[in-house]
Amino acid sequence: MSVLQSIFLGIVQGITEFLPVSSSGHLAILQNIFNINTEGGLLFDVMLHVGTLIAVCVVYWKDLWRMIREAVWICADLFHNLKTWLNNRKYDQALRYRKIVKNNYRKFVVLVILSTIPTGIIGYVGRHLVSVAGATLIVPGVCLILTGVLLIVADISEDGHKVPKDVSYSNGFIIGICQGISTLPGLSRSGTTIAACIMSGFDRKFAVKYSFIMSIPAILGAAVLELKDIGSEAVTPGLVGTYFAGAVAAGLVGYVCIKTMLVVVRKKKFKGFAIYCFIIGIMAIAGHFIIY
């Protein structure tokens, strides 16, 4: 794979990761049509996702910093409560426990953790299925059509008003399941999770924030899972440089697309993306039968 091909795929990744048209679906389709050999398999995909992850961190750095601080305090309060429990049992006391989830950001942290659990399980168990599904055009095509349906449903759904304190833990878990399923190529992660958030009654601006921030542990987990297989792949220093160029392109383009997505969701402009997904999905399915 050349540097230009890597940058091209990085631009595609940056656009499609945050706009609800499926980055994995487009990458699978382009690699099948143009016979682009990434030579590192999932490693290249992970590096592109890391590039877009950095874009998320830049856009939401204030929220992330607050969440990190609250996560540390949550751990401190849990440790304090454990000591209190031990003292109460040992000395037959009735010392009061500290409340763990006592503000919006702490609730946000807990919800993201809950969403990450099913995502991680589904992603790990289905990782081989995802690789096989991406080697053909028909699966991305069908999933793109499903993405289009989800976007239309999200567009016609009533505006919700839920912020972290109003969101139930079951909502967070179900949205995590949706994110896990969206690892299938063609099923947009952002489109699927934002649609799930909106249908769960989330405030639209918070739905976008939740979707993108909850992607961070999922992307990091995929990267760690992939790192253990690097030794078995023919990854040269030159190839790493090529991958890095694609990751930079993905991050820069992704930053712009996050800002665009905030406007799209607020103004209910999903229908255009839905039509696009229908067209590309049908073309991919047709291409499958033509090529194979």
TrEMBL record:
- Look up the EC number in the record and give it: 3.6.1.27
Q: Where is this protein localized, as stated in its record?
A: Cell membrane
Q: What is its main location?
A: membrane
What would be one Pfam family of this protein? BacA
* GO MF: undecaprenyl-diphosphatase activity
State the function annotated in the UniProt record: Catalyzes the dephosphorylation of undecaprenyl diphosphate (UPP). Confers resistance to bacitracin.
Q: Which PANTHER family match?
A: UNDECAPRENYL-DIPHOSPHATASE (PTHR30622)
Q: What name appears for this protein in its UniProt entry?
A: Undecaprenyl-diphosphatase
Q: Which organism is it from?
A: Murimonas intestini
